[in-house]
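Task: sequence design from structure.
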């Protein structure tokens, strides 16, 4: 799960955020494309982290953002012959039939991801050595210079299937340990249409964002499972699914404890005023007293601000400022920061232009500017 904001340059002591990992890989990609002659000197990237933290999604989103190719190799599901190719006798020699998934176009660009590398046994790791380390398979195949090589895997402490890497393989990678970063995920979630109830709940209970302290052989909270909770809620609401069946699904995704808290939060959030009507100026603005309902109100404000029709956008923006004037500064600043974030840099710039350049923003900063600056620096 990546962010379009410039990340905090300070590296956390216990690892890298997804935003920082994206910045590093972006730098490697641009360096590779500007200096293809250095393809063998730019190190492949090894992303370490617990299940569900967003390692694979980070690479997929990078490829989508750059509009480049993506080859996903699940090494644990392969045989050594899948990498090297199939030997075929011809006359008095042996020819090799290589997999069609390897990129051939010398002018193409993309990322080859060896996902779940640490779940593969040593024989499969050895089979991948040459391709990862030397970007070639003998004289049979060479990775085009525009393609970057990444790998991802779990650590032994993550209670997932994890084999150690050989020192020879480990020594060629640039290693990044990823941490579960709620702030970066929240920006990604808002830009990718995650249900506002999920975003609001995790604002209210950030400790429920990622938690491996329970039974990890069942559902447990992670960025991946909260995204799936969002989908489950949307589909259940659309279909009118029985509440007890939705409860079973959510508990199966994030565990009973987190599910109980989320559903209780959602019950309270359902009692907030009609946010769309307030944004349109069709209803009196009422600010809930409960903190959980205020989180839900802010998440809904941001969601509907950009989901409405373009023809009514100015009215919605005006309503956004109207509601913000009535909010405490910490909630108003949080809503503004969330509203400024788009799914890509171009959309983010457009939203910044419309909100930061709005005639009412100056008055808004006089009221909430201190909280806004503090939260933006912290983000």
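Answer:
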């Amino acid at each position: 799960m990546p962010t379009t904001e410039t990340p905090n340059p300070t590296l956390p002591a216990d690892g890298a955020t997804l935003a920082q990992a994206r910045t590093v890989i972006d730098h490697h990609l641009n360096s590779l494309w500007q200096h293809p002659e250095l393809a063998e000197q730019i190190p492949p990237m090894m992303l370490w982290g617990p299940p569900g933290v967003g390692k694979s999604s980070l690479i997929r989103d990078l490829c989508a953002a750059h509009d480049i190719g993506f080859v996903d190799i699940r090494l644990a599901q392969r045989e050594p012959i899948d990498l090297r190719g199939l030997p075929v006798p011809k006359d008095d020699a042996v020819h090799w039939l290589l997999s069609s998934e390897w990129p051939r176009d010398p002018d193409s660009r993309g990322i080859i991801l060896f996902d779940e590398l640490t779940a593969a046994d040593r024989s499969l790791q050895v089979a991948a050595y040459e391709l990862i380390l030397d970007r070639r398979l003998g004289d049979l195949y060479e990775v085009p210079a525009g393609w970057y090589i990444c790998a991802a895997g779990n650590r032994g402490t993550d209670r997932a299937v994890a084999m150690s890497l050989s020192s020879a393989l480990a020594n060629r990678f640039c290693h990044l340990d990823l941490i579960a970063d709620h702030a970066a995920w929240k920006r990604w979630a808002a830009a990718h249409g995650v249900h506002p109830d999920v975003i609001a709940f995790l604002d209210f209970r950030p400790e429920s964002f990622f938690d491996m302290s329970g039974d990890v052989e069942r559902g447990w909270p992670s960025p991946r499972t909260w995204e799936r909770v969002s989908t489950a809620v949307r589909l259940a609401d659309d279909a009118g699914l029985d509440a007890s069946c939705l409860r079973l699904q959510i508990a199966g995704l994030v565990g009973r404890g987190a599910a109980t808290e989320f559903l209780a939060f959602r019950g309270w959030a359902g009692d907030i005023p009609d946010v769309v009507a307030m944004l349109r100026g069709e209803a009196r603005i009422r600010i809930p007293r409960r903190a959980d309902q205020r989180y839900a109100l802010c998440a809904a404000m941001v969601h509907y601000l950009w989901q409405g029709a373009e023809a009514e956008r100015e009215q919605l923006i005006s309503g956004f400022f109207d509601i913000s004037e009535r909010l405490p500064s910490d909630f108003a600043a949080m809503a503004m920061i969330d509203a400024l974030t788009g799914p890509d840099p171009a959309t983010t710039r457009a939203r910044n232009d419309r909100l930061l350049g709005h005639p009412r923003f100056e008055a808004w900063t006089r009221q909430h500017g201190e909280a806004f600056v503090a939260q933006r620096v912290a983000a």
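Strands lie at 45-48, 69-74, 86-90, 93-97, 110-115, 136-137, 141-142, 147-153, 174-177.
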